[in-house]
Write a structure and sequence with these properties.
Elements: E1 2-3, H1 7-17, E2 28-37, E3 40-49, E4 52-58, E5 66-71, H2 72-79, H3 85-90, E6 94-98, H4 100-104, H5 107-110, H6 113-124, E7 126-127
């Protein structure tokens, strides 16, 4: 088990993501900002190339295309499968900055059965 929002957890998530199918042209540079956590705010980023998560690190990504900002509690509920990410966005619980079109281009990934399985695998290795 890896503690949620640590580099160890991000590394393990990247390893689990290796089973995701290649999706040519589906690429993005995403910055996540989780606010109000017990240890303060946490920033991490994903770099996705052709549908593959190639980098997943704590910190800020200077040239991110999209920034997703959410509260610690809402992010936790999404990670635990208690809050749908699309519903959270529609309810204003996830703030999106940058290229919304780029974010929408990821829908083939985030709505796939393979991604749902990946989310279950990540939840299984996560300690909150």
């Amino acid at each position: 088990m890896s503690k949620w929002l640590t580099q160890e957890w991000l590394d393990e998530s990247t390893r689990l993501a290796a089973t995701q199918p290649v999706r040519p042209g589906v690429s993005a540079r995403l910055q996540y900002v989780v606010t109000g956590g017990p240890g303060g705010d946490v920033e991490y980023y994903w770099i996705i190339v052709d549908g593959q998560l190639v980098e997943n690190k704590l910190g800020a990504l200077a040239d991110s295309e999209v920034t997703l900002t959410e509260s610690y509690e809402d992010a936790k509920r999404m990670q635990q499968g208690e809050l749908d990410a699309n519903a959270a966005f529609m309810q204003g619980k996830v703030k999106v900055g940058g290229d919304v079109g780029k974010l929408m281009s990821l829908l083939p990934i985030t709505t796939s059965p393979e991604f749902a399985e990946f989310q279950k695998e990540v939840l299984a290795i996560t300690e909150f």
